[in-house]
Amino acid sequence: MSWRAFAGQNVKRVFVFCDPTKVGPGQSSHGVLKWVNKNYTSIKSLNPSLPLAVRGVKGTPAVINVQYAHDQEKYFNVENQEPSDIDKVMETAVLMGEYAKRDRMEHTKIPFDLVNP
Asked: What is the DSSP string of 14-65?
């Protein structure tokens, strides 16, 4: 199954930052803008409640900020990357959310001997 189908379960929100003055071919934000144009609609249709925002900020590097539950977040630098590479970055980010969720569940389990002294 594609990571797109369960992004909303593993990720709290996604912010994509790029420099609107550097979106031409061969420039640092070109790949991320192409990735957004190609994938935004499909990701939102599969995950309608997932906040997925794109922000153009002059002078900023192309970065994807992924926020997980419990205010954990991770920044992924996607400057000068092709859309296929950014797709792999997002797959990794969504899987990191799944592993973080499992890790939190493991740490919150109460040992059996504490439940029944």
From this structure: EEEEE-TTS-STTSTTHHHHHHHHHHHHHHHHH-TTS-EEEEE-TT---EEE
Q: Give per-residue burial for 79-90: e unless 16+ CB within 10 Å, then b.
A: bbbebeebbebb
Q: Which residues are CB-neighbours of 80 under 8 A, at least 6 positions away?
A: 28, 31, 62
Q: Is the pLDDT of residue 45 over 80?
A: yes
Contact (Cβ atoms closer than 8 angstroms) between residue 18 and residue 29: yes
Q: What is the pTM of this model?
A: 0.82
Instruction: Give the residue from 62, 81, 75, 70 showing the smallest Cα distance to 105.
Output: 70
